[in-house]
């Protein structure tokens, strides 16, 4: 007996079978039973921008899908783990998802709230209905189907607090698995000597919302990527005594040069000039706008910004005002941390300084190695596809949003993936998918 017929049979005798859930699921083509289901269309894991983009593109190709999201909302990163002053770092035309531009009245760099409103509208426009509180805890190809194990959590407000009242584990089967769990799924926290003895507050930048609660305090931001630079700026704007650790070399470029987006300008130059020439032009212009960042304690790598991005995926930081604050002395720059003390930090140059709060702006990591039992396409080391910009693996496995090219990369991946699955879907036909 094939697994579809088996599911149908079990459902007929299943007292827990919920017609409401089934009605909703059927709308997306998802057959529901309590003992594991074979889904005709692809399973998409993660309802961030990448998962939503794949879902929209599949909808337009008439392919049903099931979108599984561990939280109770879409774009959990943007909603729950970003600071309030966040705006898109890149102009809106480079950040829109497929098939739907940003509203014309949005500014060039939309705010976090505007981006979230755009995503909600995207959801409505394409009738996307994710399965929320569905945490994918494992996925494995069994030779015929991807078996995806999902922990579904039911919560309720008890004494004014959200509490887990029950959880159930289900297995779903599909011919296609689209991994859209993001490059930033979990905070990356480095091991720093003595961190346990520090008596102040230590947090990751994903828990930082605003500098308001830290007014008058001494705060150290560890890391100088886009988040570290912007959190430092926000703290300083809130009259916090702000310091920032710069451990490695980094390319800081102005967000705009002579009113033009630096990102847009780089893309345009790259169309007609070799990458090394583009880098020389960018660095010359940057020097005119920002001055010599090495003199501020932020040395540059020997490889230029665009070439470095190409060979290592490392994105240049786009300055939105932090460099001016460093020049004015409002933000102090320190080298790497040697070790923590009870009330502060010792740096590798031997200097010590007291701090009340340490914010680790030390980046994020993929969580794919924790749940996907596959290591030919995805690397078990970093949870990214082994070949940069690769979006298609074997046996119907896909990666959406892992090309280190931000939302532009998300859109490109989503379109390719939906085209590929759509083609396959049309070739075989819906009825045959069901009985395979
Ligand atoms: C602070 C910040 C600012 C950024 N600004 C820009 C910008 O301006 N422009 C730009 O192009 N890019 C930007 N990026 C980079 C990137 O575009 C975003 O991170 C974007 O959100 C990526 O979308 P995504 O869907 O791939 O991943 P995410 O947004 O991380 O979404 C992944 C989703 O998967 C869910 N999930 C994870 N694991 C599981 C699981 N096991 N089971 C079920 N669900 C799961 C998560 O809850 C989440 O909702 C920024 C990134 C950060 C961190």
From TrEMBL:
**Organism this protein belongs to:** Dichanthelium oligosanthes
The family assignment reads: Belongs to the FMO family.
In its UniProt record, a GO molecular function of this protein is:
flavin adenine dinucleotide binding
One GO biological process term is: auxin biosynthetic process
Q: Write the protein's name.
A: Flavin-containing monooxygenase
Q: Which domain of life is it from?
A: Eukaryota
Q: Which InterPro entries match?
A: Auxin_biosynth/cation_transpt (IPR050982), FAD/NAD-bd_sf (IPR036188), Flavin_mOase-like (IPR020946), NAD(P)-bd_dom_sf (IPR036291)
**Keyword NADP tagged:** yes
Q: Which cofactor does it need?
A: FAD
Q: What is the lineage of its organism?
A: Eukaryota, Viridiplantae, Streptophyta, Embryophyta, Tracheophyta
Q: Does the keyword Transmembrane apply?
A: no
Q: Which UniProt keywords apply?
A: FAD, Flavoprotein, Monooxygenase, NADP, Oxidoreductase, Pyruvate
E.C. number: 1.-.-.-
Q: Please give the catalytic activity noted in the UniProt record.
A: indole-3-pyruvate + NADPH + O2 + H(+) = (indol-3-yl)acetate + CO2 + NADP(+) + H2O
User: Which Pfam families does the record match to this protein?
Assistant: FMO-like (PF00743)
